[in-house]
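We now fix the convention by which a protein and its fold are recorded. Here is one such record, which you should read through line by line:

>
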Amino acid sequence: MRQAFTLLEMMAVIIILGIMATLVGMNVVGTTTVSRIAATRASMERVRSALVMYKMDLGVYPESIGDLVESGGEERWKGPYLDPPALPRDGWGNVFVYMRRDGSLEPFVLISLGADGKAGGVGDNEDIHSNLSGPLVSQN
């Protein structure tokens, strides 16, 4: 009757478990990234809608994204346009970059700086830009 495993059998089991853990880990990380991008796009769409409502009420886009939550004393302000006190964040917990672009076909742009929170990048670190005239797109 056999009572113990050989070193070779134990190493084979450890290698198989390591390969399985690697495959599962890669699938979980990939799913997390896709979920964060989807959450970012949903939050970005919410902010974009709030910006358009602000423009309809006041006739101009706000100077800063914070103007969607707190009035700067404007008489026609009917906000808050977003739930106070916190501003929406992207899927990585970063506040969106907002730039008003007067006189442009695209009057504002919203940017998520990706996982690293820095401009530019590839993969998880890639920036996600809004596009007022069409769907939200990712820019390389």
Remarks:
- The chain is about 35% helix and 10% strand.
- The longest strand covers residues 108-112.
